[in-house]
Design brief:
Order of helices and strands of chain A: EEEEEEEEEEE
Distance between the termini of chain B: 35 Å
Helix content of chain B: under 10%
Radius of gyration of chain A: 13 Å
Largest sheet of chain A: 7 strands, mixed
Number of helices of chain A: 0
Helix content of chain A: under 10%
Distance between the termini of chain A: 39 Å
Shape of chain A: globular
Largest sheet of chain B: 6 strands, mixed
Radius of gyration of chain B: 13 Å
Shape of chain B: globular
Largest interface: A-B, 23 and 28 residues
Strand content of chain A: over 45%
Oligomer: heterodimer
Strand content of chain B: over 45%
Number of strands of chain A: 11
Structural class of chain A: mainly beta
Number of helices of chain B: 0
Structural class of chain B: mainly beta
Chain lengths: 117, 110
Amino acid sequence: EVQLVESGGGLVQPGGSLRLSCAASGFTFSTYWMHWVRQTPEKGLVWVSRINSDGTTTTYADFVKGRSTISRDNAKNTLYLQMNGLRVEDTAVYYCARGGSGSQSAWGQGILVTVSS
Amino acid sequence: QSALTQPPSASGSPGQSVTISCTGTSSDVGTYNFVSWYQQHPGKAPKLIIFEVNKRPSGVPDRFSGSKSGSTASLTVSGLQAEDEADYYCSSYATSDNYVFGTGTQVTVV
């Protein structure tokens, strides 16, 4: 069974940093692209970033470019999202998702990130 | 990248069909056949139900079907069932190696 379990969320002050992790199991992690997607009630689902299977290519949505870094450790079957310079508008539930055929084929349960003073 | 446009809501009676539109541009839906659809029940993670415009992952009922014409994609749910009541989001691969989601549609089974 495919499982993706996010961790590392919580409350952080504006300007602060947070590193999200996503532990993968039930599939060959090293062969899949991986994504981060976030969700708020106001904007719905919004794609954040993706990384290719060996970690050599990354892309970001404009609103996180320069502030966030996606990475992965294939030996540990883990995906990361380092977020710096956090803003109130970054408050959201963050999902990690497995890629596949131009889609996000499996999703974690999500982790809440709250940016507030 | 602007969100793809979906109607906020749609509804149908059990057994009926409902179709949800997803309008993009030539930078996303109009160019790429990487259009996906996701079902999300309250408090749950999204679930992939259609990929590459009209393909269903294993285990997804054939009541769910997808299509595309120009820059507009569509999801049709036939033979509506109570458990189909959920939010539905479309998504497309886009230029500059980005992805864009739709605004979401709440489907109600009345």
